[in-house]
Amino acid sequence: MTSSILVVAEHQNGSVKQVTYEAIYAANQSTTEEHTIHLAIIGYEVGSLIDELKNSGVETIYSIDHEECQHYNPEVYSRALMQIIEQSQCEGVIFGHTTIGRDLSPIISANLDAGQISDVTAIHQTGDQILFTRPIYAGKAFEQKAFTRTPWVLTIRPNNIQAVEDTETTAENQVIEYNRPDSLRTVIKNVVQKSTGKIDLAEAKVVIAGGRGVKSTDGFKPLEDLAHVLGGAVGASRGACDADYCDYALQIGQTGKVVTPEVYIACGISGAIQHVAGMSQSRLIIAINKDPEAPIFKLADYGIIGDLFEVVPLLTEEFRNA
Ligand code: FAD
Fold first, then answer.
1. What is the pTM of this model?
2. CA distance 206 to 121
3. Residues 261-310: tens digit of each pLDDT
4. How many Å apart are CA 65 and CA 55, to the nearest integer?
């Protein structure tokens, strides 16, 4: 029997997010049965996104393209997605563990009466069982879970699972007519947070994070320069956000974003457990702090004891000339 898995594509500013390609890879790993993978794209003027995704190895791209889907609205998106789920007859639905994925996936699970496993960082097969690994206790331990029945819903943490490469096959595009839901809310204005860079923090391969040690909004400037040279994104501790040095959109940690870049550079961050919860899975951690006793050094692969305002510009210069 062939099972069918639906991946929910995420996009921003007219581009497909990397986590979509990772979710397609995850879909291939999520079953031992013969399977087909389908993709759901919801948005407005999504033609170029369909073009971008048509060779990603999926069988069908179900798209709902409507002005009312331009901005994320849980009622509109969940209704639209349920239409696609019905059409695709899927047994599993996969989202990125992103702001939208975290909001939308439980609505879909409840609608489908499905079991959900969230924030998956790895997928393994043992015998004929598929095990999904996810962090627990703020990243201090991992658990492995399995689904015992269908339908199921999965969210995968960005930057942890391999992305699919383009294939020779071309997906069929099925346009689904948008059915306006009896929505209690409407989006009046989309407030775009001032961003320090073009790269999405959750998907960045390099993150330069600033803490209370940066001392001011201007104190983030050397971090932004380093992020620019390394092609990375700037993040922050809650200490820096609470002090109003930067926007809460940059906050990393238990109550902020979870990041798993290849390189994480913590500048003037003490390493409180709530911060560590959001970055401990980074592949390489570098800490710059003038206090040799700072807890962040216990976690760091490399530590630089020094003033970040001296160290960060030196690193920027070195990487620029490298
Ligand atoms: P501090 O702890 O004040 O550390 C500043 C560091 O900068 C110090 O180690 C100091 O030595 C160093 N420093 C100062 N000047 C320099 C310099 N010139 N050069 C180099 N180093 C310098 N925090 C988060 O980050 N994310 C969360 O999601 C989060 N969620 C929370 C949820 C709850 C329920 C609670 C109670 C707390 C939460 N916190 C969170 C807050 C957390 O406990 C810490 O207070 C916070 O992480 C501290 O931020 P910080 O490391 O920037 O500041």
1. 0.84
2. 18
3. 999 999 999 999 999 999 999 999 999 999 999 999 999 999 999 999 99
4. 20
Give, as one character, the DSSP assignment of residue 97: S
Residue 102, phi then psi, degrees to nearest 5: -70, -30
Rama region for 268: left / alpha / beta (φ>0; ψ in -120 to 50; rest):
left
Work out the average pLDDT over 243-261: 94
Q: 212, 202, 201, 104: which is closest to 157 by C-alpha?
A: 202
Alpha carbon separation from 199 to 129, 181, 196, 289, 308 (Å, rounded): 37, 33, 9, 25, 23
| 237 in Cβ contact with 275 (< 8 Å) | yes
Q: Which helix (H) or strand (E) holds 77?
A: helix 74-88
Measured CA to CA, the distance from residue 17 to residue 199 in angstroms comes to: 11
C-alpha 250 to ligand 1 mean position (Å): 14
Q: Is the pLDDT of residue 183 over 90?
A: no
**Residue 294, ligand 1, Cβ within 6 A:** yes
| pLDDT of res. 157 | 95
Tokens of 158: 């960005």
Residue 191's CB: how many other CB atoms inside 10 A? 4
Could you tell me the distance, in angstroms and rounded to a whole number, from the CA of residue 213 to the centre of ligand 1?
8
3-class DSSP assignment, residue 310: helix
The answer to whether the CB of 278 falls within 8 A of the CB of 298 is no
Average pLDDT over residues 185-189: 78
Q: Which atom of ligand 1 is nearest to the CA of 251?
A: 26
Per the structure block, which two tokens stand in for 6? 């639906």
User: What is the value of ipTM here, to two decimals?
Assistant: 0.99
Of 315, 98, 287, the C-alpha closest to 211 is 287
Please tell me if the CB atom of residue 296 comes closer than 6 angstroms to any atom of ligand 1.
Answer: no
Coil vs helix vs strand at 157: coil
Helix (H, G, I), strand (E, B) or coil at 316: helix
